[in-house]
């Protein structure tokens, strides 16, 4: 509604010298993907939070951050839809974009420069030669050959039609 104020706000952001804090994850790549997935591929509200849909209202679970407890909120259908649509991106917008060194136009060239500057150290693909079963064990600490309830390895594994067997 006020383009000149917004442009001023953007100018301040562009002139700020950002210093990101980047460190290795504690639990590995799988944990990072799970964490990011919660934010990048979610919808405004999940079906499990909606408790009642009436002729004129929608009731859903919300978290009261002051008390730390969960409660229910009832909104008119119009207000619920208005709030839901606030989370829908406008046409042409995407959820994740890459800027700077990771922008599509300059990524390959700039990453090569960075690798040269850091002495040629590159990411080591720690999952490269692992089988599907080994990937499950390493990334998610899941062993399909062991019962998750009793710990027994007397599990019968069968292939389903059309599904490839994990090695």
Q: Could you walk me through the main structural features you see in this protein, from its secondary elements to its overall organization?
A:
- Helices cover 32% and strands 12% of the residues.
- By secondary structure, the chain is of the alpha+beta class.
- The protein has a domain of 47 residues.
- A 3-stranded antiparallel β-sheet has the order 1-2-3.
- The relative contact order is 0.06.
- This is Transposase.
- One of its GO terms (biological process) is DNA transposition.
- GO terms for molecular function: DNA binding; transposase activity.
- It comes from Youngiibacter fragilis 232.1.
For the structure shown, list the relevant keywords:
alpha+beta, 5 helices, 167 residues, 3-stranded antiparallel sheet
| Overall spatial form | flat
Strand order of the largest sheet: 1-2-3
Q: Give the proportion of residues in helices.
A: 25-40%
Instruction: Quickly give the structural class.
Output: alpha+beta
* Weakly predicted, low-confidence segments: none
Q: Please report which band the strand proportion falls in: under 5%, 5-15%, 15-25%, 25-35%, 35-45% or over 45%.
A: 5-15%
Per DSSP, the total helix count is 5
Task: Measure the end-to-end span.
Answer: 58 Å
Structure summary, number of beta strands: 3
Largest sheet: 3 strands, antiparallel
**SSE run:** HHEEEHHH
Based on CA atoms alone, the radius of gyration comes out at 24 Å
Mean pLDDT across the residues is 80
